[in-house]
Structure formats: structure tokens, C-alpha cells
Amino acid sequence: MSAVSKLSAAMGLALAAMGAPLVANGQVSDGVIKIGVLSDMSSLYADIGGPGSVVAARMAVEDYGAAKKGMKVEIVSADHQNKPDVGSAIARQWYDVDKVDVIVDVPTSSVALAVSEVTKQKGKAFLVSGAASSDLTGKACSPNTVHWTYDTWMLANGTGSAIVKSGGNTWFFITADYAFGHALERDTEQVVLKNGGKVLGKVRHPLNAQDFSSFLLQAQSSKAKIIGLANAGGDTINSIKQAAEFGIVERGQNLAGMLVFISDVHGLGLTTAQGLIFTETFYWDLNDQTRAFAKRFAPQNNNKYPTMVQAGVYSAVLHYLKAVEAGKTDDGTKVVAKMKEMPTDDPLFGKGRIRADGRKLHPAYLVEVKKPVESKGPYDYYKIRSQIPADQAFRPEKEGGCSLVK
Amino acid sequence: MPEIFGIPSAALFGQLLIGLINGSFYALLSLGLAVIFGLLNIINFTHGAQYMLGAFCAYFLLSRLGVGYWWSLLIAPLAVGAFGVLVERTMLKPLYKLDHLYGLLLTFGLALVIQGLFRNEFGSSGLPYPIAKELTGGHNLGFMFLPNYRAWVIVASLVTCVATWFVIERTRLGSYLRAATENPALVQAFGINVPRMITLTYGFGVALAALAGVMAAPIYQVSPQMGADLIIVVFAVVVIGGMGSIMGSIVTGFGLGIIEGLTKVFYPEASNTVIFIIMAIVLLIKPAGLFGAQR
User: Is the Cα torsion angle A214, B31, B247, B149 positive or negative in sign?
Assistant: First the structure.
């Protein structure tokens, strides 16, 4: 299969390389601001970011009114297949050959960490929405990377502490075996221990596993009160679905989906997903502006409502374009510095700012999935249990170990 | 509680049983592949997509027409099998005389097209499919909680596998089939319509994939990728069992399911590679596979 996936990677590169002709325009290099949406376009995270992230980026460019302001903005996209080697090869190709100025989204933390490194070397800009590892603004932080939507520390802090405080003090982790899962498990474990809980065991499963019954059984025999799912996308869906089948909840244990997206809830159905508690930074039904965005977004995305990752892409691209305009440059390092200097303000995440370590700050929401009878229809899924203010939602700047923080 | 290698024996029994359940899917899928390869000499890479089509067919039947699980078990394999017949008639037929590689490339391309179309339409997170009412719940076996549905999967898969093996190896129809692969001209001379038989065999192999798809729908997500993820493993199973060997694919299917299950206990990180390690070892020692005849 590897020959085949290499072939398709090469084809992906070829497609990515087919950009439109460049037009001269004084302020920015080569006259065009080129945004590369790098995402999982075909596998387990494709509904979280994927083609929907391209839609979101396009909407941001339109809403910014780039054309009216005389800015030429182009969007290209590619599929990194959740492989760090493929992702960094595309990033290099984009930066070196295709004159891409900024890469956005990039779910899968291992890929995002690789792309962040490439971006730093090339002096470009990287706006992370899809990836979760808090290392992106911690020990692996970069002056060229902004981590927008959410991270593992925020998820652990929001969901983990809420659960421990309500009595779930013994945990067993089912963890995706790569950078993201490890980071999420680590951050959650810290929160659990800090709040007086105990971790009884953990098991690591390969990314994109099909069958979780074996892992669930191990979790079951640990007798932990809470089974923490430190995985995402299709892996989380299958874990939750199969946990229901094995009667995990009926037999007294509870599931904590550490990272759940609205697309996952949609895929699970409310009957299976009801009662799940987790943390999000965006929900389409928060206010009039988010509702208006979702109503415009869905028809362009096969009637699927935006996830927080896709909303984050919109918001990040919008702020990026503002910074390019304000700084009159598309030099990656300078634009990111400008982005950190300017306060953020957009319809989806409200007012906020970006810290020196690259962490974007905004409120987070602890949500609970509605019961089938409470839901009025597709995508009416969440009850907001509480709002975590921006200054408490994310890891304190000093604790991350980022070298940019003085 | 007694322990084996540091794992409580009760937990170990549970894992063995779970391995057996996963093995059921491997066996069902590799059986279809073995039938198709053994009798048609086509390496059917579309098998994963056809398994996915089976699951989607069940989903459509339920969500659009209100037809439940039990009827889906019958209708989906028939519908997808008919699609297989169409594929065989229009695309595979001209390839029989060529190298295996052509069939492989065609079926692989077809799988990509089908999966791509479904992904465009339904996205990647998958669609929910409930477990049939009669099979919800489960039994406490003492060492583990066995969901009724999983028990049903083991039984249904075993019955299907044994029945298929019996038909091909022990009945007159099966002997025609096997003879037709060895020497189609001679069998045709006896007045048997060989091309039709081959078409129907392909249809049957595809129907087996669809059946596995319907059985998988309530456990896994009904998603366009479900087959692509599984098919590589299943191919390894077929290679280990011996290309084209019916019994080989059944035994290795269940056997590897168990080995994989045990890996998930002792060294979970390796659980998705263990089958390929075994494949490499088997190929080194016995290139034709455990049950394969040297050709």
C-alpha cells in the first residue's frame, strides 16, 4: 500500500502545485497572498477540518472584502493523509515552489509539529486550527506559529476538572498512540492528579483503529470510574459506540470524550451520544452571528454544520488578512508579530488576543449532548453547561516552557 | 484470581473471545477474496469498497425505506452482488487472459472511485446504524460481558464460512467450479456455461463482502473508509492463509483475529502491525501461504 500512498501523495502535490498565475501588486511579495489549507481531506479527520476548512477560508477571504481592497488572495489545498512526512513535503513544496505565504488548519498534531518546524525555517506563517497538542505553544513554540482554536491543555482543564469535581476521581485512559494522544493524556492526567484524582491505567491504540472492544475490556477490568478517551474523530466515535455495546455505562463506568466535535456527535446519533460532557470553543448556536455563519456555511459544505476547527480557520484567516493589511507585508515572521500585536475580533469567537507564545485566547464552553427528545433537529445537539473565561481556559503562559516567553 | 503472564486469566479469556469476533470479519472477507481469486484469478481490490457498499446499503434500507437489519442481511448482499455481476460483465471479463496485475489495478481504481464518491456525499465521520432490537443487550459470562450482537456475529460468520467451504469443496456445483478454473475449455465441452458460472461466482464473492458489511454496520461506523482500512489486513490474511485456499482463509481469519486480540493486551502499540509481521515470516518460510498449494 505504501507505494500506492506515495503515488497518491505525489498526485496530491501535483494538484497542489497547479495554482493560478501570479499578478503583481506592490505591497506583498509576488503580488498575491496565497493561503494553503493543509488538512486531512479523506480520512478520519476529514469532517473535522478537511474540505470544510477550505470553505471556511474562502468565506473569510470574501467577508474580509479582499477583492474590494485590491488584495489578491488565492487559496490552495492539499491532503496530508495524517502523515508527518507527507505534510512537511507538501509544506516545503508550497513555500519553495508555489509561493504559499501561510498554511492553515493542519489537524493531526504530529503533522502540525512538523509543518511548524518547516514554517519556522522558511520564515512563513502557520495558523493551526485542527491540531491539538499544547506543545505547539509550549516546548515546540515558534515565532511563526499561531495556535488558534483549542489545545489539549484546554480540553483537559475544561472537561477533566469538571468531571473530577463531580466525583469521577479514578481514571483509565484509552489513548491514540501519537503526539496528540500523548499530549492529551499527559495534560488530562495532570488535571486529574491536581484535583485529587487517580489514574489506574492506560492503553495506547494505533491511530485509525477499527475495533476498540479489546481496549474497552481492559478499561472495564481496571474498575476506574471514568474511561478517558484521549483520541479524536473516527477513533472516538468507534470507542463510544462500542462502549455502549459492551454496556460500559450501564455497569457503572462513565466515558469522558476528551476531544469531541459536533461532527462526531452527528455521526454517533443522539441516542448513543446523549449525556456526553466535553469542551468546545465554538458552537454554531451560541448567538446570532454564529447562527448566521452556520446558515451560510452549511450549504457550501454538503449541509454539514461547522466544527470549531472550521470556525477557527475562518477566524484565523480573517485576522491574518487584517494583519497583512495593517503591516503592509506578507513576510511570515512580521505578519505573525503583527497578529500578536493587534487584538482579535471576529463574529465567531468575539474579542480576544494572541499571546507571545502564539496561543490565541478566547472563552471555552463546557457542553453536554442533549437527549434525543430535547433536540429540535439535526445539529441541535448541545446544552452549554458553563463558560470558561478566556483567561482561565488556556494554560498560563509561564507554564508552557515556550522560549518566546520572557 | 489466577494470572497468565501477569494478566488475569479472566481478562485473557475475554480478549480471546474478542479476537474471535474480529476474526469473524477477517474470515468472512478473506473467504470472499479467496473464492474470487481461487476461481477467477482476480485479485479483487474492490472487496473493501464492496464491504462498505453492503453497510451503506443496510443504512439506506433502514433510513430511507424503513427496512430493518434482518431483511438487510438478505437484500444488501443481493443488491451489491448484482452490482458485482455488472462489474464482472462489463469490466473484469476482458482481463482474464491478462496478467493478475491488470485485474488488481482495475479493481483498486474502482475501489478508489467508489470510496471517493461516497466520501464526497457522506463525509468521513460515518453514519449511525442501530443494533437490531432482538440482539441488543448481552450476557455476563463471568469473565466478560458478551454483547448478544457479537455472539451473533461469530455464529453467523462461522455458519457462512462452513457452508461456503462445503459448497465449493464437497458438492457437485463446487466441483464444476473448481474444474472450470483448472480447464475451462474442457468443462465447457461438457455443456456447462462456464462464463455464466464465473460471473455468478464473482457475484457470490462480492455478496459475501456485502454480508460482512451489513454485519459490521452496527458495530463500526457506516463510513466510506471502513473498507479501505480493513482490506489491507484482510489481504494479509489471505496471503498468510494461501491465495485462493478456502479453508486457509477461514482458519487464518479466525486465528489472526485471536493473535491480534492478544497483541492488544500484551503490546497494544503493535496491534496493527502484528499481522504484517506474521505475513512476512510466513512468506519467508512458506511462500505459498500456510494452506496454499505451490503452483
Answer: positive
Residue A78 parent element (H or E) = strand A73-79
* A303 at interface of B, judged by CB pairs closer than 8 A: no
Q: Do B126 and A237 touch (CB under 8 A)?
A: yes
**How far is residue B195's CA from residue A232's CA, in Å, rounded to a whole number?**
48
- What's the grid cell of residue B25? 470479519
Report whether B206 contacts B50 (CB < 8 A): yes
A11 Cβ neighbours under 8 A, 6+ residues apart: none
Angle at B115 between CA B111 and CA B120, to 5 degrees: 150
CB contact under 8 A, A234 and B128: no
A218:B108 CB<8 A: no
- What's the sign of the alpha-carbon dihedral B262, B268, B271, B274? negative
Chain A residues 184-223 with a CB less than 8 Å from chain B: 203-206, 208-211, 213-215, 217-218, 220-221
Q: What does the block give as the cell for A202?
A: 492506560
Residue B45 carries which side chain, given as an amino acid letter?
F
**How far, in Å, CA of B66 to CA of B62, rounded?**
4
| Chain A closest-CA separation from residue B111 CA (Å) | 13
Residues A222 and A249 in one domain: yes
Report how far apart, in Å, the C-alpha atoms of B162 and of each of B25, B27, B165, B166 are. 14, 11, 5, 6
Residue carrying the nine cell digits 497468565: B4
Helix, strand, or coil (residue A371): coil
Question: By residue range, what is the domain housing residue A137?
Answer: 27-150+287-362
> For residues B288 and B295, what is the distance between their CA atoms, to the nearest angstrom?
8
In a domain, A195, yes or no: yes
Closest alpha carbon to B231 in B151, B111, B93: B111
> What string of DSSP letters covers A201-219?
EEEEE-TT-S--HHHHHHH
Span B45-87, pLDDT tens digits? 999 999 999 999 999 999 899 988 999 999 999 999 999 999 9
CATH number at A228 reads: 3.40.50.2300
What does the pLDDT look like over A5-35, one tens digit per residue?
444 444 444 434 333 333 333 356 678 999 9
Nearest Cα neighbor of A128 from A118, A115, A140, A138 is A115
* Residue A400 resides in a domain: no
Residues 6+ apart with CB under 8 A from B182: none
| Helix segments in B171-245, DSSP class H | 172-182, 184-189, 194-216, 226-241
Kindly determine whether residue A247 and residue B108, on different chains, have CB atoms separated by under 8 Å.
Answer: no
Domain count, chain A: 2
B123/A44 touch (CB, cutoff 8 Å), yes or no: no
Task: Identify the CA nearest to B21 among candidates B222, B167, B212, B164.
Answer: B212
pLDDT digits (tens, 9 = 90+) for B141-169: 777 788 888 899 999 999 999 999 899 88
- Mutation target for B interface from A235, A245, A303: give the one with most B CBs within 10 A: A245
Across the interface, do A214 and B223 touch by the CB < 8 Å criterion? no
Q: What is the DSSP letter of A160?
A: I
Residue A268 maps to a domain: yes
